[in-house]
Amino acid sequence: MAVRTRTIKVDALARVEGEGSLHVRIRDGRVQEVKFGIFEPPRFFEAFLVGRDYSEAPDITARICGICPIAYELGAILAMEDAFGVAVPQVISDLRRLIYCGEWIESHGLHVYLLHAPDFLGLPDALELAKVDKPLVERALRLKKIGNDILEAVGGRAVHPVNLKVGGFYRAPAKAAIRALAEDLKWAVEESLATVKLVGGFDFPVLEQAYTFVALRHERDYAIHQGRLVSNGGLDIPPAEFLDHFDEEHVAHSNALHGFMKDGHARYKVGPLARYAINHDRLSETARHAAHAAGLGPVVGNPFQSIVVRAVEMVQSCEDALALVEAYEEPDSPAVTVEPRAGVGHGCTEAPRGVCYHRYRLADDGSILSARIVPPTAQNQKCIEDDLLKVVEANADLSDEALRWRCEQAIRNYDPCISCATHFLDLTVERE
Amino acid sequence: MPDRKRPKLAVWKFSSCDGCQLSLLDCELELLAVSEAVEIAYFLEATRKVVKGPYDISLVEGSITTPHDVEAIRHVRRQSRKLITIGACATAGGIQALRNFKDVKDFIDLVYAHPEYIDTLDRSSAVSEHVRVDFELRGCPINKHQLLEVLNASLNGRRPNVHPHAECVECKMRGNVCVTVAKSEPCLGPVVHAGCGGLCPSVGRGCFGCFGPMETPNTVAMAAKLAEMGLDGRDIQRRFRGFNAYADAFRRESEVHGG
């Protein structure tokens, strides 16, 4: 039989945030090469941060990503508070969790319906879906909007909120404005349950991976903005030890670094599947039942089912948000006093796409001496490439167009935020 | 309505955070109506369908930072009847234009393990430095209501109703108490372009310039006021060097200060 080489190329991936490409080479049915390239140009955030005041870091790092600005604002805030030894009262922590729930609802709503579902339905986009089922897309957009409404009510603006600062908030949201979200959130809980049912009924390509999962775990909550870093391989560390266990490397075909675990140079996975597996016992009754009814076990190893897990997380975050909204009372003071001092601080939260880590070294006047940020998509890059390898091997008989689409779908399983992934490069310069 | 009758809209991305094009998808109540009024012909964040140009309206997000970008933006211009830039990156170079004040070659060597993989220009620049722009919509991020107004105006052949006056005016219209007068809070409102609706003063915070300089801003007086409030040269420079640091008026004022 003649040697046959096929090349599958996607020059510019659609329905992802940022600019990525894919290159696959197959020879005689065997995959020779898989490259998930990120050509989004670097923006050098760590460098801009050097010399800036600690108080500017939340607003500057927000600009890393328009989809998940809270992950950056809050990551920076938590790191500064860690460095300065600041503790905030429960009501401030709850407001942070509430606005983060808003970001999850908005981001998951966007991804489940507008970016990922069209793959399962064989459609190019959600606008085509609207031609078939307009009420469904209208409900999806309303669900997404409720996430944005939370961001606006707490943060002042949906993209790059302005109300968050080190120590708390500039102004505490009025009780009436927060309580007013409750009715919509009750609807959103029901609608996200319907979403679990809908996407649970999709046909999923067969792929079963034995991932190493890493996620935040909290003693009580389905962790979003606090907890320890836990893996299904026995790791259990405070966020401050992140860099002792994880690292990144620079590869030729990508402007983003590739994350790995130092132990065995191994790939690992962050995001919805990781959180779901690590924190299954922290899901609400409603969310856990919905997952079970949709056919999910306590661990999901098929990355194509991430769309169902995102929907389950929407149930969880709508319920959490509702409880926080109904319990909200205005704090006596919107923020605690912050006294800058020299030191190092770490912040770690669960962005919609997974663990997002910040580390800053600060001078005694609060100026930033060095910054390091590890975004979720960089950490997932090795898993994305491994999934692609398995997908291509299992589907080598598909036509080029069908295989190309299947590969795109496999990348979108990660909801990769390419704008984020490319902006983080280890900067070793330190100003004296 | 058959597709060919509707004007074709394209959305392009250069170096940016995606937040401004997300603002279009954040028009939850209007998105389906927009997609009925125009054919979304190229919008990678939303669809894998690509309809060939030429396009009636191109929205451009992001700044120009690579040799490839320089070629690509010319290609976009050639294919577009109207080219509208959206956001601080596309209109002023964005936060990534902070590199313009440094020696970027040394910088890349320090930052990357393998500088040879990196293809970047030494400056991050606005789209208008490279091609003719029909309208610039400000903001970091843009205001989605203004985006809808710009689209509406373009489709109807009229000037967008987007005011170039100072942020201060919006703040007064909203009935905010002035944070500078009442709390001695440094605020860039007097020199910043309107558009956000006076967000920061509404939460008791000074404006930090998301929308960039207004038309003919008096940055000298602004800087003098900041100094009078006790900010040193380095603080004043930092205030002007944010998301619109390379917008002409802010760049020039920032170069006067330092420390």
Task: Work out the largest interface and the residue count of each chain.
Answer: A-B, 68 and 59 residues
E-strand count of chain B: 5
Order of helical and strand elements of chain B: EHHEEHEHHEHHHHHHH
- What is the CATH superfamily label of the largest domain in chain B? NADH:ubiquinone oxidoreductase-like, 20kDa subunit
- Oligomeric form: heterodimer
Low-confidence stretches of chain A: 423-432
Polypeptide structure, described:
The complex is a heterodimer of chains A (432) and B (259). Chain A folds into two domains: 5-38, no CATH class; 45-413, Cytochrome-c3 Hydrogenase, chain B. Chain A has helices at residues 45-49, 57-62, 69-84, 90-121, 126-132, 134-155, 175-179, 182-200, 242-245, 272-278, 285-293, 306-327, 376-394, 400-412, 418-421; strands spanning 5-10, 20-27, 30-38, 164-165, 168-169, 214-217, 228-231, 236-237, 246-250, 257-261, 343-351, 354-362, 368-374. Chain A contains 15 helices and 13 strands. In chain A, β7 (228-231) and β8 form a beta hairpin. The model of chain A is unreliable at 423-432 (pLDDT under 50). Chain A is α+β, with helices and mostly antiparallel strands. In chain A, 44% of the residues lie in helices and 17% in strands. In chain B, β3, α3 and β4 form a beta-alpha-beta unit. The model of chain B has no long low-confidence stretch (mean pLDDT 92). Chain B is an alpha/beta fold. Chain B has two domains: 8-155, Rossmann fold; 167-256, no CATH class. Chain B has helices at residues 19-25, 31-37, 67-79, 88-92, 104-111, 144-155, 167-174, 179-183, 199-202, 219-228, 233-240, 248-256; strands at residues 8-13, 39-43, 55-61, 80-86, 135-137. In chain B, strands 2-1-3-4-5 form a five-stranded parallel β-sheet. At the A-B interface, α1, α4, α5 and α6 of A face α1, α2, α5 and α9 of B. Chain B: It comes from Telmatospirillum siberiense.
